[in-house]
Amino acid sequence: MRADRLVSLVLLLRQRGRLTADVLARELEVSTRTVLRDIEALSAAGVPVYAERGRHGGFALLPGFRTELTGLNHDEALALLAAGSGRGEQAFGLGSALASALRKVVDALPESHQARSSDAAQRFLIEPAADLLSRKMVTEELPDSTMVEVRRAVLAGHKLRIQYAATDQAPQWRTVDPIGLVTVRDKGYLLATRSGEDRTYRLSRVLAAEALPESAERPESVDLQQIWQQRSAQFRGGGSDQVTVVVRLNPARREELVTTALAVLTEEPDADGSLRLEVTFQDARHAEWALWQLGTGAEALGPQWLRTSLRNRAATIATRYEEPPER
């Protein structure tokens, strides 16, 4: 770990020039004292790093201390830098590793490519933290220690012991055979089997994990895309709580509905220009919530219990706003 940090420190100084100990500590996610010890270690190893005193001082490398690698062209480097600017950095707890890797990518470029690629990457923004309406994207916070164990078991092919908090259940420990990791819309999933049965676990609900020494029972090769599609189909087609709803919809709100629903069973245009869809939701609460979010842009045509529930909710809101608020 320290060797990686020392490399990252050198790369930061190469790419940005003079930096203070506080800035280096923030970038490397360590204390200022650790940075000072690392600077001493680099100097002892012969790396030409020196300190500049004064208000605008800091640490820097002697000019010309660098190596070049010409294997990446401008477009290849730009693709990597643009990908790293998005929210993918949060996937599976690999944010700091991605930041370190991108520093190495930039440093490996010839000087003629470095500035051009970095400037061009600033023109791309992938999946910002909020949309135009300032609605924040909710990301799952996964403890690094937990994700390290999960990744270790997945990559090494070992059994994994997890403490998992299923919906409306107390956390329980279970041992699984991990197959792979999937991230979809900022949500992470562990695909696994347990006693030979397919299991899909939300990573945000894994409270603790331990990679075991025993080998996992799983095939040598895997097609995660195919497995994910199969499990997605099983999820949409099963579950005793799932409900089917017929909706009349403003076409402009279609994307919101289909993104929320589990599946779209049928879809056809109405004579008035609206759309009529038959969709499934996870349960009654999910259906009511999804239709309420669409406001007047959608009307639930059936089942009747959903229309009644939405009407009662709207009546409660209307009643609350009939009179001026009490001062």
TrEMBL record:
* Species this protein is from: Luteipulveratus mongoliensis
What SUPFAM superfamilies does the record point to?
Winged helix' DNA-binding domain
> A GO molecular function for this record?
DNA-binding transcription factor activity
Q: Which residues form the HTH deoR-type domain?
A: 2-61
The UniProt entry, under InterPro entries, shows: CBASS_pafABC_assoc_protein, DeoR_HTH, HTH_11, PafC-like, WCX_dom, WH-like_DNA-bd_sf, WH_DNA-bd_sf, WYL_dom
Q: What is this protein called?
A: DeoR faimly transcriptional regulator
* A Pfam entry, by short name: HTH_11
What are the UniProt keywords, alphabetically?
Transcription, Transcription regulation
The answer to whether keyword Membrane applies is: no
